[in-house]
Structures are given as C-alpha cells and as structure tokens.
C-alpha cells in the first residue's frame, strides 16, 4: 500500500493517464518486481512525477513547486537633458505641495 500526500494538499494523482484521486491518498498496489509511476498535478503548480517500487509499503510526500510568472518587460524610456531639467524645475516649483 502506498500513502501519498502533497504540499499543498488536494493535488490530482494519476497513473498511466488514469485518475486515482486527490491527495492525501492511499493506494493498494499489487506486490511484484515492477514499479509504479504517479503524476501529481495542481493548477498553478508544476507537475511532479514519482516512481515507486511495488514490493514494499511506502509513505511519500511530494512538495509541488509553483509555476514562475513571466516578468513584465522594463519600459524603454529615454530622457534627454531638456526633459530632466524640466522635471527638476517643476519639482522645485511645486515641492511644497508634497
């Protein structure tokens, strides 16, 4: 018997494309020399694959990692000397408002 948990809980567990359930989960696997491959998936997280030998009872916890969000590109702005001078003059004139 395999006891499978995940952090965070509630991850979908599949084996050969067949849904087994959601974590935490206990699965009866026939004993034998073969191994079982499980895939853990959850929205917003990377899929994790786990391979376990069928000969023993095992308890495993899988830590799911979040997808990295793409970073917004930096704005491409170039200020010339006149723009900088104009902004600084406006700051000096109205700085008492802040």
Describe the model:
By secondary structure, this protein is mainly β. It has a domain of 62 residues. The protein is 14% helix and 38% strand. It has one helix and seven strands; from the N terminus they run βββββββα. A four-stranded antiparallel β-sheet has the order 3-2-5-6, with no helix packed on it. It has a three-stranded mixed β-sheet with strand order 4-1-7, with no helix packed on it. β5 and β6 form a beta hairpin. The protein is rod-shaped. The termini are far apart.
Give a nutshell description of this structure.
With 98 residues, the protein is mainly β. 14% of the residues lie in helices and 38% in strands.
Main sheet attributes: strand count, strand direction, barrel closure:
4 strands, antiparallel
Order of helices and strands: EEEEEEEH
Number of helices: 1
User: How far apart are the termini?
Assistant: 67 Å
Strand tally is 7
Q: Strand sequence of the main sheet, in spatial order? A: 3-2-5-6
Alpha-beta classification: mainly beta
Strand portion? 35-45%
Shape: rod-shaped
Q: What is the helix fraction of residues, given as a range?
A: 10-25%
Low-pLDDT stretches are none
Q: What's the overall average pLDDT, rounded? A: 88
Radius of gyration, in Å, reads 27 Å
């Amino acid at each position: 018997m395999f006891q499978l948990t995940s952090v965070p809980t509630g991850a979908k567990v599949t084996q050969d494309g067949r849904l087994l359930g959601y974590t935490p989960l206990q699965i009866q696997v026939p004993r034998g020399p073969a191994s079982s491959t499980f895939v853990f998936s959850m929205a917003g997280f990377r899929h994790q694959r786990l391979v376990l030998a069928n000969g023993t009872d095992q308890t495993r916890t899988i830590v799911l990692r979040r997808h990295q969000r793409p970073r917004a590109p930096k704005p491409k702005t170039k200020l010339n000397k006149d723009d900088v001078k104009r902004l600084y003059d406006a700051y000096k004139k109205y700085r008492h408002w802040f």
